[in-house]
Amino acid sequence: MKSNHQPIIIFIIIITINNPISANPDPKTSIVFTTLGRTRYAFDIFSLPVNSPFNPTTELQLTDGKSVNFNGHFASSVNDQTLITDDPTVKNQPATHLVYVTERNGSSAIYMDVVSYSKTESTRSRSVLETDRSVVETELTRSQRRLVGGGGEGISMKDRPSLVGDELIYVSTREETGVGRTSWAAVYTTQLSTGLTRRLTPKGVADFSPAVSPSGLWTAVASLGEKGWGGEVEELNTDIYVFLTRNGSGRVKVVEHGGWPSWVDEERFYFHRRGDDGWWSVYMAILSIDGSFSVDSVVIRRVTPPGLHSFTPAASVANKNIVAVATRRPGSDYRHIELYDIVSGSFKELTRLVAPRAHHFNPFMSPDSKRVGYHRCRGSGRKGKMVKNDLFLENIQTQRPGISLFRIDGSFPSFSKDGDRIAYVGLPGLYVVNSDGSNHREIIPDLTAFSTAWDPKRKGVVYTSIGPTFASVDTGVDVVSVDIDADQISYTKLTIGGQNNAFPSVSPDGKWVVFRSGRSGYKNLYIMDAFEGEKGGLTQLTNGPWSDTMCNWSPDGDWIAFASDRHSPGSGSFALYMIHPNGTGLRQLIHSGEAGRTNHPWFSPDGKYIVFTSDYAAVSAEPISNSHHYQPYGEIFTMKLDGSELTRLTHNSYEDGTPSWGPIYMMPKNVEWSIGEQKCSFEDCQWLAITNSDDDGKIKCGG
What we know:
With 703 residues, this protein is mostly beta strands. The chain has 3 helices and 51 strands.
């Protein structure tokens, strides 16, 4: 009998191994989350000539208009054969070698583009230009190569890269620290001809914004050092360290309180800091000539004056009297790139003359100092180009098997019970869409709703909260239910009194709704009847002088997960907790650290894991180098309910939040918007704004 059955058993095993679905017995699922403002960026890298008179046609778009491209670097020379294209049309043309960070195909990478241009003469109206005729440069050839990243490594490379020979110096989050609320950002060097990668940042230290000296000998970084991250979301209070580029040795602190270094020569570099007067300004550090660097031996002087914000400096190696900076001037809502002459003390405007109503970020200079580069949203230029790749659902690569991860252009998404539909809010507005991105519908326009949850029993019923977000305990916010499939759509109010009732979640049997309320004077959890609301029955689940919020009911009905500051009421620090619906079994799930924030828990469909957002990995870049995020440290994590298998799913310097876990596997491909969307409507850092004058008539800024 054994010999008769053995061939059949072998045959079955072979079929199972070659079937990709059967090879993974765990069900495949999807996680959808929100990133504040990210879908509006559409960044590309541009450049302008330094010495030419104002002429909009002289602005060149250096990157290819695909996805998001930013933080560029002009490579001074490319000698390694692995970096040179075989295309003879490119070889025979004067070319720009641009190294930059890009986010495409769901992951972060560093690319190099070799671009050549042709010059043609065009005629334009005197109403636009000072002269009738101008020279227009148009792209002739482009060769593109991915240097590092991409391919699903699941790492971030936010900061500007530098290329010295065939050594690429850059920041990556490739190594976990193993300690909560500490940054994974560190400086690495990769030899592109061999792929050999070395870490230059010491273990246990976070470095940002690396800059390599003109000779390639030294690298300067903005570093948190041993003090770590204190939760800052404006200025990180970094210090500047210098070390040998070849191996990271000889590391020494040379500037206390500074960021974003940029070398002028081997003895001087610029950096930025926020001064005691509130203005961000550019400073110069002058090192000792004999190379014995220390904080005590370095001379520091302020370069740009108060009265405007100047930051992210880019030194001009060929013309040491000028420095390119990003500015925010009083009366302007936008940051622009300007040149500052350190001899005359005068500014020269550049980008405001070309695209006055667009933010321009992080300048960098060409080796001959004839052009300055920067990135901005390509949809707000002088030509009013349509933005490519308008994505409603963007697939993000992850190393977590069996999970399809998506960023949605909306807030507070949630899946229907069978996973075929997603509800979300537009702040304002309540929307629903099929999980494949089709049949997008606006349910209730102009409704100031936040959070969504589907009824597991009544098809088409969605719960949400209406009223202002981040409100006090007595603010008018109520939980409502909406039948999104009704002929006449309206909502039913389930709570009474509007005392900040929010974040509803429905029990698996569809009978009860857990929500948070401020009716006791503090935000605690309550359970009410899912049909009649609190009129049909109300139970207070938690009670105390703290904030319990963002609750989610487990699929088996045994647990309710929520975020709370009960460990330190009123501190702004949140951890995740679980409690039984009868009020027993309270326990803490995870806390990222003292003063840390961990929020928005959501159970996996099988109830074995939770997904949440946390500052467990701290920050990945200097906040001022990006556009506005309330919390530029939120990343998406998953974890088992016993605290094991903590896994980071997102790596960036954006605010990721409000994740939801659905029961189906969404195809890992992008879904474009079916309607035109304004993709450049994001804000600059709000704390960078110029405010009104105080009682003494002085302008208040920076806070």
